[in-house]
Design brief:
2 helices, OB fold (Dihydrolipoamide Acetyltransferase, E2P), 2 domains, four-stranded antiparallel β-sheet, mainly beta, 144 residues
């Protein structure tokens, strides 16, 4: 089988153009999947006004948060910090929360999944933006 480098290049260009992390293409005889990982450098392209506070300082080279208790996403989806647009956010930096409190919603396949706090603590940092895509295991919130 001959590899169509032009098709792969075109799919890779789509990843960049539409800011995707993964793209799959297929027909009867062929299936191609292209993906890229998000590095800490990609956060530098986010508008400073809308970016999570000091996120590049708290992420080490492997992409893991270095300090505090982490609450991670249980699924792949879209993160929402409030129950509906314009409503009060579930958590704010500095707010004390208890185990089981909802910290945000991750929407997947039109289902709103409440993400509970895994322990008691004070919110040190919110690592995602409202409406942003999240991966399984991605840190959502850091607690003191």
């Amino acid at each position: 089988m001959k590899i169509d480098k032009k098709l792969i290049k075109e799919l890779t260009d789509y990843l960049n153009e539409f800011n995707l992390t993964e793209l799959e293409y297929g027909n009867n005889d062929l299936k191609i999947k292209v993906s890229k990982s998000i590095s800490t450098n990609s956060y530098q392209n986010i508008d400073k006004k809308n970016s999570p506070k000091n996120i590049t300082e708290d992420i080490n080279k492997s992409g893991e948060v270095s300090t505090g208790k982490q609450i991670t996403s249980p699924i792949i989806g879209t993160a929402y910090l409030a129950p509906e647009p314009g409503a009060k956010k579930f958590v704010e930096v500095g707010k004390k929360i208890k185990k089981g409190d909802t910290i945000m919603i991750v929407e997947a396949m039109k289902t709103m999944n409440h993400v509970p706090a895994t322990s008691d603590g004070t919110v040190k940092e919110i690592c995602v933006q409202d409406g942003s895509p999240v991966e399984f295991g991605q840190t959502l919130v850091i607690l003191n």
